Write the structure tokens for this entry.
Amino acid sequence: TWIAARPGEGVAAAATSGAEVVVLDAGAGLPPHAATVTIAVEDAARGFGNGFAWPLGPLGERLEKGLNRVDLLLTVGPPAAQESFARIWPGPFPCPTMPTALAPLQTGMDWEGLDVIAFAGIGAPERFFATLRGLGVNLVRAQALSDHQELTPALLARLDAEARRTGAQLVTTEKDAVRLPRDFRQNVISLPVRLEPADWSALDALLP
């Protein structure tokens, strides 16, 4: 894993160290045409909001301009959300689309009926909570944090106290688990999930 203030420099350093493939979670800082493949990831349930860029809407730039820069639009959500997205945003888009769904990895963990206090500091925490509900947990509380919110000692102490009081298991995302203090991590289970597209062909066609 490479961390760099300037993405272009990070990519160059990774390549110098022998990396053959570099994946960035945000490629906006790269020079034009520097990326081999650019993928836009969108929550199927939220779609593009009202379709307008800030300050009139939630988008960082005009929708048409943004989609013209990407090679693939990847939508994430269950079938009902995908159907809603297709109905509200029928296209056509300047790039192919690939519907996907989040699926938990099978680890042997028996989630059915487990009392859980879940916390998540990701862009769409409700999607994480919905995945837990789908596994059959009893969600005692769902603590939605802002994206990258600091996991302060006070916050963790409150979560731990509630878990002890209710007998619930603390559960979080893989992304948040790595940010936990090492001595607290043993109290928390992370739920591993992966994106599963119904059809890989749109992505396969883009890869060299």
